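Dataset card, provenance and construction

Sequences and ligand SMILES were collected as paired inputs. For each pair, a complete structure of the chain with the small molecule in place was predicted and serialized as structure tokens. The example below shows a pair involving adenosine-5'-triphosphate. Curators did not alter the output after generation; any descriptive sentences attached to a record were derived from the structure itself.
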Amino acid sequence: MGGDDSQPMVVAQRLRKVYRGATAVEALRGVDLEVRRGEMVAIVGPSGSGKTTLLNCLSGLDRFDGGRVVIDGADLTTMSDRDRTAYRARNMGFVFQAFNLLPVLTAVENTEIPLLLQGVPARAARRRAEEMLETLGLAQRARHRPDQLSGGEQQRVAVARALVHKPAVVWADEPTGNLDTEVTHVITELLVKTNREGQTIVLVTHNPQVSERASRVIRMRDGRIQEAARAGVEGAAT
Ligand SMILES: Nc1ncnc2c1ncn2[C@@H]1O[C@H](COP(=O)(O)OP(=O)(O)OP(=O)(O)O)[C@@H](O)[C@H]1O
Ligand SMILES: [Mg+2]
């Protein structure tokens, strides 16, 4: 699967998502999107415009009601659940709006999960997880559990876990939400570095400090992409 450089990393066609409840919400109203290999795309837009929904549908975390998503040449809709789960574990990294760290594991144990899932030997996994935490300024917190970490520290552990196995695609929903300028800078530059090493990144952000480092900004409004604005900054994929 995948690896063809000419093929886009992410393709969404006429993507529709309706949340059915007391009142049905049309969260995605026909989204067309293509993300090229090696791009760093920022999705921006007002609260409730469908950014998280789009990320969840593109990454195969949530089902959608219409249209199609193709990741690295693989149609997620036709893949079996088992294949999709295995594909996600190997090729994708996630930073969620709620961090989803495992509460009984320490920071370093949370961080090394993707490596262990890939069969990296325990000792090497531990070393790489520790290095990643150190990059994020958390060397002194590696043995703390999430409930012994501040919100911002938990968020950094989630970023470490998303990047540690160098997945082909990184999905991040507000990776710097509620963080101060300094930590936002560290995380943003780590994402830029990761992107320069060839990884494709799709992130949601409200923060201009983050979106201005992306190669492209996509604006959402009312479940639609409003404009695919702005040409790339230096270093962006062409
Ligand atoms: N599980 C759900 N059930 C019903 N409606 C939902 C559900 N999740 C989201 N919605 C609705 O779908 C719309 C899009 O939500 P979404 O979370 O994608 O917005 P968002 O752009 O990520 O907003 P924010 O910036 O606040 O995170 C909103 O109107 C929201 O109320
Ligand atoms: Mg959201």
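Derived descriptions for this record:
Residues 10-229 form a domain with the Rossmann fold fold (CATH 3.40.50.300).
The radius of gyration is 17 Å.
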